[in-house]
Hints:
Blueprint: E1 2-3, E2 7-8, H1 24-37, E3 42-45, E4 50-58, E5 61-69, E6 77-81, E7 84-92, E8 98-100, H2 106-117, E9 121-128, E10 131-136, H3 137-146, E11 151-153, H4 154-160, E12 162-163, H5 174-181, H6 183-193
Parallel strand pairs: 7-9
Antiparallel strand pairs: 1-2, 3-6, 4-5, 6-7, 8-11, 9-10, 10-12
Amino acid sequence: MQYPNHIKKTNHKIINYANRGMDLEDCINDSNDYYLEINRALIYKKPTPIGVSKASYTSSGRRIDEGYFLAPSTLDYNGLYKGCYIEFEAKETKQKTSFPLANIHSHQILHIRKVLEHGGIVFLLIKMNGFVYLLKGSDLITFIDNETRKSIPYEYLEEKGVKVKEQIRPALNYLDVVDILFKGELEWKRKNLN
């Protein structure tokens, strides 16, 4: 296109409008609804355990005015997939070069260790630099146990994590990545259930 004074402007940027306006949790919830509809998996968002100290009643029902957390929450999502227990945490960061480990609480790291000890599938979905990565819980624990850094470098996510495809439905097709990364666990479970 020609602008005044013979200035040329071009726009070669590719814009992906899929899932525009959806945050990571919305994408996961949409995906879980889809997986349930097609009977692929039973995965749910875990509610945060809250105690009510003060409530009031309105025309639309009971309203919590004051509350408190009963216990620290473990991970965001859990359920069943191909006969295996699955649990994961969803995290987003605006950081460009690393993912701060402070975003994962110590009780959550302990819980990830316990799920691994009991043979469950556990991982993190991390949204960073416009991409969503699936990082196995075992790779997270290996990093924590062997590094002194307080953040996971972006290069580690690119090396150990797998990008999850964003699309229309499901919004975030993370189970296809689970099928690849946890193939051995899923096959063992399938063989031993019969």
